[in-house]
Amino acid sequence: MVVETEIKEEIFEAVTRLFGIEIQEWNQIHLGYRNLKWRVKTAAGDLFVKQYNKDRYPEARVPGLEKALQIQNTLFLEGLPCPELFSYKGNFVLNTENGERFVLMGFNKGFTLRPGTANPSQMHILGKVIGRMHVLLEKNIAREPLHWDILSKPEMLENWNERYDETIALDCSKTLHQLEKQRRILAENDTSLFAQCEKGWAHWDLFADNILFSENEVSSILDFDRMNVVYTDFDISRPILSCCIHENQISVDGVSAFVSGYREFKPLPLEKLVRSIKLTWWREAEWIRVEKPGDSTPIKRFREENIWIAENWDCLEDLFSGI
């Protein structure tokens, strides 16, 4: 706690030194993993300060983080609902005199939804925002090499075997049942399934915690730190899975509304919709393992979504056929 206080004071001093902004009041936000966050009141209005933990963001990751924030700034200037960033000498990743890294941005008001509780109106506007974001990214941001690729089938099977052995050793029948479903899917499919997936700049972290709503409007897309060149399909499946699955059921009306909104800016045929959901299953299959005490709430939620996809793998086309 003492260390956190020292970091806070150091960062707040840097905000005043770099921008001449005096922090009058502050509230710590206890969300996210390891990075410290504060909502601060100033004469310039309410702002948001986020520290980047040095273990999570070592020096080697800073250029990629700066690039992601540069893109967020471009999207903000184009009118996409996302926080305004403060830069110093052209950089958005800011530094204290002792080397603490942080970012300063506007504080966007709104509320997050509990996973699986979005209504169709909210999903429609969310689809429009994501579709427009993808158009802006294609128009304004030069393409770079793929940041990472999905595991090959042999790599997936190796990972599966490791989790299977762990499950047997821990004698967890529930997880064993889930892994048996995974094994069947892996036996019948390979990465050729994703050959047509589009690659490009994507937010890549659009789960419910990173989307602020105001009634039936999206007031802000948050946390662009992971933005990179990956499969853009993740920006379709992740918000759908996060916002529309509740108690192991999916709101088809919500999915349909999202797709309708997205289609106002980019095509989204049924095949792409289904492929995007299966892509997320492939990427996150490793979350299916015996639950550990330290598992975060998002990981537990991703596990639930992965289980739902596996249970519905063979009927996704029929489920969404009317969309």
Provide the descriptors you would attach to this structure in a database record.
323 residues; five-stranded antiparallel β-sheet; single chain; 10 helices; alpha+beta; two-stranded antiparallel sheet; 2 domains; 11 strands; Aminoglycoside 3'-phosphotransferase, Chain: A, domain 2; Phosphorylase Kinase, domain 1
So how many helices?
10
Helix content: 40-55%
Count the beta strands: 11
Number of domains: 2
Tell me the CATH superfamily of the largest domain.
Aminoglycoside phosphotransferase (APH), C-terminal lobe
**Biggest sheet features:** 5 strands, antiparallel
Uncertain spans: none
CATH domain class of the largest domain: Alpha Beta
CATH topology of the largest domain: Aminoglycoside 3'-phosphotransferase, Chain: A, domain 2
Per the principal axes of the C-alpha atoms, what is the gross shape?
A: globular
Coarse structural class: alpha+beta
Order of helices and strands: HEEEHEEHHHEEEEHEEHHHH
Rounded mean pLDDT is 95
Rg of Cα set: 21 Å
What percent of residues are in strands?
A: 15-25%
Textual characterization of the structure:
- With 323 residues, the chain is of the alpha+beta class.
- The chain has two domains: 2-106, Phosphorylase Kinase, domain 1 (2-Layer Sandwich), CATH 3.30.200.20; 120-319, Alpha-Beta Complex (Aminoglycoside 3'-phosphotransferase, Chain: A, domain 2), CATH 3.90.1200.10.
- Helix content is 46%, strand content 15%.
- It contains ten helices and eleven strands.
- The protein has helices at 2-19, 62-77, 120-140, 153-170, 173-188, 234-244, 252-263, 270-284, 297-312, 316-319; strands spanning 23-28, 37-42, 45-52, 94-95, 101-106, 199-202, 211-214, 217-221, 228-231, 245-246, 249-250.
- Strands 1-2-3-5-4 form a five-stranded antiparallel sheet, with helices on one face.
- Strand 2 and strand 3 form a beta hairpin.
- Helix 4 (153-170) runs antiparallel to helix 5.
